[in-house]
C-alpha cells in the first residue's frame, strides 16, 4: 500500500516540472487536499491549482510551511531563496526535494536545520507519462524514511538511479534535457514517412515505436551495442558520427551547467 496518500506535499514552482509533479501525485492517489502549489506568478499558481483541483498558496502560508515534503521546481536561481524562506519554520522530519539544475545538494543542506532531509533530483519530461528517468542524490542528512518517501514519489514519475552530487551536471545532458536531443530523430523519421505518403500520425507512430523498441532491446537484453546493431544488417547513418554527436552534446550541456553553477 502506497504511503503517498497520507502525506502532504507543497509543489513550489508551477512550471513544466511542477505541473508534472501535481499530475502524477494526484493520479497516484494523493488527495487534492494534501497538495498545494505556489509560484511567484500567482496567476500561474492559481491556473495550476484549478487544473489539478488543488490549493494555491503563498510560500509563507501555514499550509505550505506544514507540508511533509517540499518539491521545489523553481528556476535554479530561486531555489536557495525558497529554502531559506522556509527554513525558519522547518521541523525535523520534513523533506526538501530540489529539482533544479546547477544547485548541489550540499549547498541546500547548509541552509536547513538539523533533522531536515535534503534530496536532489534531476527531472525529465517523459515523467509526464510515467516514463521518466530521474537521477537522485540523497544528502547526508537524508534519513531512511525520507528515502522511502522520495522513492515513492519517483516511482510515480518513472525510473530513477542514485548518483553522486558531482555527477548531476552530466545528468542534465544524459537525461534531464536529453529528450531534446532525441526528438529531432523522431521528427526526421516522421518527415521521411510523410514523404513516403504516410499520414503524419502513422509516420509518427512508426518512428516512436522504433525508438521505444530499440530502447527496450537495450533495457531488456544484455546484447552489446554491436550485437544490437548486427540484428539489422543495413547501416543507415554514420553511426560513429551520430554516437559522437551525443557525447559532445552531453559534454557541452555539462559545461553550460557548470558555468551556471559557478554563477549561482
Ligand atoms: N523542464 C525540464 O525538462 C527540466 C529538466 C531538468 C531540470 N529541470 C529543472 O527543473 C526546474 C523547473 O524547470 P521547469 O522547466 O519547470 O521551469 P519553469 O517552467 O520555468 O517553471 C519554474 C516556475 O517557478 C517559478 N518560480 C521562480 N522563482 C520562484 C520562487 N521564488 N517561488 C515560487 N515560484 C518561483 C517560475 O516563475 P517565473 O517564470 O515567474 O520565474 C516558474 O513558474 C528548473 O530548476 C530546471 O533546472 C527541468
Could you characterize what this model shows?
- It contains eleven helices and eight strands.
- It is an alpha/beta fold and 264 residues long.
- The chain folds into two domains: 4-166, NAD(P)-binding Rossmann-like Domain (Rossmann fold), CATH 3.40.50.720; 178-263, ProC C-terminal domain-like fold, CATH 1.10.3730.
- The protein is globular and about 60 Å long.
- Helix 2 links the parallel strand 2 and strand 3.
- Bound molecules: NADP nicotinamide-adenine-dinucleotide phosphate (NAP).
- NADP nicotinamide-adenine-dinucleotide phosphate (NAP) binds next to helix 1 and helix 4.
How would you describe this structure in keywords?
264 residues; alpha/beta; Rossmann fold; ProC C-terminal domain-like fold; 2 domains; eight-stranded mixed beta sheet; 11 helices; 8 strands; binds NADP nicotinamide-adenine-dinucleotide phosphate
How does the SSE layout of this entry go?
Layout: E1 9-12, H1 16-27, E2 35-38, H2 42-52, E3 55-56, H3 62-65, E4 69-72, H4 76-87, E5 95-98, H5 105-109, E6 117-121, E7 132-138, H6 144-157, E8 158-162, H7 168-176, H8 178-195, H9 200-220, H10 225-230, H11 239-263
Bound molecules: NADP nicotinamide-adenine-dinucleotide phosphate.
Amino acid at each position: 500500500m502506497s504511503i503517498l496518500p497520507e502525506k502532504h506535499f507543497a509543489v513550489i514552482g508551477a512550471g513544466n516540472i511542477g505541473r508534472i509533479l501535481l499530475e502524477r501525485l494526484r493520479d497516484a492517489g494523493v488527495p487534492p487536499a494534501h497538495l498545494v502549489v505556489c509560484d511567484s506568478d500567482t496567476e500561474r499558481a492559481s491556473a495550476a491549482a484549478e487544473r489539478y483541483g488543488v490549493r494555491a498558496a503563498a510560500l509563507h502560508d501555514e499550509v505550505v510551511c506544514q507540508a511533509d515534503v517540499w518539491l521545489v521546481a523553481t528556476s535554479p536561481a530561486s531555489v536557495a531563496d525558497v529554502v531559506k524562506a522556509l527554513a525558519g519554520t522547518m521541523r525535523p522530519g520534513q523533506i526538501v526535494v530540489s529539482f533544479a539544475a546547477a544547485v548541489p545538494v550540499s549547498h541546500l543542506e547548509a541552509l536547513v536545520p538539523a533533522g531536515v532531509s535534503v534530496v536532489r533530483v534531476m527531472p525529465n519530461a517523459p515523467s509526464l507519462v510515467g516514463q521518466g528517468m530521474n537521477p537522485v542524490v540523497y544528502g547526508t542528512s537524508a534519513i531512511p524514511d525520507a528515502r522511502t518517501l522520495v522513492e515513492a514519489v519517483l516511482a510515480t514519475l518513472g525510473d530513477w538511479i542514485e548518483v553522486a552530487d558531482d555527477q548531476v551536471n552530466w545528468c542534465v545532458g544524459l537525461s534531464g534535457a536529453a529528450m531534446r536531443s532525441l526528438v529531432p530523430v523522431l521528427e526526421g523519421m516522421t518527415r521521411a514517412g510523410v514523404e513516403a505518403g504516410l499520414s503524419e500520425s502513422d509516420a509518427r507512430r512508426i518512428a516512436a515505436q522504433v525508438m521505444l523498441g530499440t530502447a527496450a532491446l537495450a533495457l531488456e537484453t544484455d546484447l552489446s551495442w554491436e550485437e544490437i546493431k548486427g540484428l539489422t544488417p543495413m547501416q543507415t547513418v554514420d553511426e560513429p558520427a551520430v554516437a559522437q554527436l551525443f557525447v559532445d552534446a552531453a559534454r557541452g550541456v555539462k559545461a553550460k551547467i557548470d558555468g551556471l553553477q559557478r554563477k549561482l
